[in-house]
TrEMBL record:
GO terms for molecular function: kinase activity. PROSITE patterns: FIDO (PS51459). InterPro entries: Doc (IPR006440), Fido (IPR003812), Fido-like_dom_sf (IPR036597), Type_II_TA_Toxin (IPR053737). The keyword Ribosomal protein does not apply. This is Death-on-curing protein.
Amino acid sequence: MIIETLDKEDIFLIHQQTIEEFGGELGHFDNTDGKVQSILSQQYPSFGYEKYPTIFNKASMLMYFFIKGHCFRDGNKRVGLTVAKVFLGINGIELDLTNEQAIQLTLGIASCTLRNIQIDKFIFEDLTSILEDNSYYEE
């Protein structure tokens, strides 16, 4: 199965659309391009090693790092959630979270203080399980 990926333009468009839909400050920082590119590069294998091999690992990683990376002046939690939903969607998977689940999930990620190996455990086990359990393949 070939996994479709997102690019930098997709991320900036997602940010713009979430700000337009939900309100907030449109804008980014001087280092936003680099941060976005760094996060997106983790979708791909590096030196023959794929750190995030499954589609749900990749979606979890994107959600986590866009929320925690503070790439934008506003809307980072919304961007993280939307990026994961769009990423799964372009790969034929519908993420079906209630508003309450989405709020709890994004606030939980934003407030967590995990470090290094704990982040990987959270992405691979906890967040991946939540996304898998709340998704279905589109027909």
